[in-house]
Amino acid sequence: MRPVDPAADARLLHGWVTHPKAVFWLMQDCDLAAVEKESARIAADPFHDAFLGLHNGTPAFLMERYDPAHRELVGIHTAEPGDVGMHFLTAPTTTPVHGFTLAVLTTVMEMLFADPATRRVVVEPDARNTAVHALNEAVGFEVLRTVSLPAKDACLSTCTREKFLATRGDHR
Fold first, then answer.
1. I need a surface site. Which of 70, 72, 81, 132 has the fewest CB within 10 A?
2. What is the pLDDT of residues 55-101, one digit of tens each?
3. Are 51 and 3 in contact (CB under 8 A)?
């Protein structure tokens, strides 16, 4: 994974976030300038960053990491020390690979937990996004409750390092 370059990656990301499969990303109506502006806003934010994930050298997914004490869930979730918020999106493809999205999510979780300060990952996927709920459960997320956010009702979910490692057969 590498940091998103707002100017250089805007066209690629625009194609991803406006694709029909990215409906839950909530950027369907954004033009190229809006995607670049949002990427630049994230890049300048000390509590939010974005990474482009490569597969065999080709951009294949987007991951955003944020501090839930300062972004997304302020006033909704009481962040604990070591909480890290996350969003991810796989690139649209005409040749899907079975298990790829789970592999992406696993890679994202490994990156987040590679930081010893990360104790728990927090997500807030759209309550209607049943596909991501199944993926989240597969890597150890537990739904805490449904919350109302400005643009969606979401399943506030968390995954501890221990729960994630247990899904991988590692019971440290």
1. 81
2. 999 999 999 999 999 988 888 889 999 999 999 999 998 888 899 99
3. yes
